[in-house]
Amino acid sequence: MAAVVATPDLRRAAVFAVQTLAVALGYYAAGRLGLMRQLVVEGAIFTPIWPPTGVALACLLILGIRCWLGIALGALFVVLSLTSLRPVVIGNLVGNTAAPVCAYLMLRKVGFRNDLARLRDGLALVFLGALTAMLVSSTVGVGLLILTDKLGTHSFWPVWLAWWVGDAMGVLIVTPVLLVLHGMRRPLHLSRWKEASGLALIAGALVPLATRSPVSLLFLVYPLLIWAALRFQLVGSMLCALFTSVMATIAATDGIGPFDRLTRVEVMIKLQAFNGTMALTALLLSAVITEQRNTRRSVELACQELVEVLEHLTAGDAPPGRPTKGTEDGGLTKDTES
């Protein structure tokens, strides 16, 4: 009996350990990718997009609050790859873990759905998951730099803004992509694959041109986002936004294209403004389109059911799913009573 009882417990413990390690490795891998491109503001190094925040929130929404330990371990791995473990580093670990956890709790409080099929879900992810919850990590991180005299008080707001926007961008761009990929259940039809391939080819040619041309052509990506949102909803628009954001970040950190001859602060402002508006456009437009399509399908289904009911009434039959009078009286008709 002891072995029978222990087996489910051991299985749950093993699943928890595997999930925790997977989340930690995913967080670490995302962190290493984010550190490949950096900007300097007021002497502080920051990443324009911090993907681990998006990975952390997506894991919480998919696996639940129990994966917070994996997030903390992943943040620890990232820090240990850069520096030694010190008290200020422990404070940053707490902030980087608490921010996505706060985002998860707030989203669950308002009834957030992972499929992002409603406009309210997109708005919740933007204003609660990204803009509000990421205040925790940026405030804790920059506050510790001020307290340990690693940053002057006059530099608080520029560095805090850069940190906050970088974490928020990770949520806006990475979290929707991971949620959509996790929720995909069926592949596209052959005709849709042809259109998707055409969209990918055009994006692959147009986005590098827009982000590297000395002439400011960043606005050219918005028709691609609209096309992707109209035809492929969230998965298409967010993948397009992710690719564009990566290319824009590479151009900004290299100081080329529309980011040439700008100061570091101007580069940060222009890049983050572009990434933010693009991510908001892709996310909210896709949510609106998906919500309208779901509403239309519900109306069409209701009309179809109404037509079936009217057909049965015209034929003199009872509508499907509704009992006849004889059945309501216990299954006895006048003939059977006699």
Automatic annotation (TrEMBL):
TM spans (from-to): 13-35, 55-82, 123-148, 160-181, 239-259, 271-289
Record keyword Transmembrane helix present: yes
Occurrences of domain MASE1 (ranges): 21-293
First and last residue of the signal peptide: none
UniProt keywords, alphabetically: Cell membrane, Membrane, Transmembrane, Transmembrane helix
Chief location of this protein within or outside the cell: membrane
Matching InterPro entries: MASE1
Membrane topology: Multi-pass membrane protein
Comp. bias regions, Basic and acidic residues: 325-338
Subcellular location: Cell membrane
Region (Disordered) location: 315-338
Any one GO cellular component localisation term in the record: plasma membrane
The keyword Transmembrane helix appears for this protein: yes
UniProt protein name: MASE1 domain-containing protein
Species: Streptomyces asoensis
Lineage: Bacteria, Bacillati, Actinomycetota, Actinomycetes, Kitasatosporales
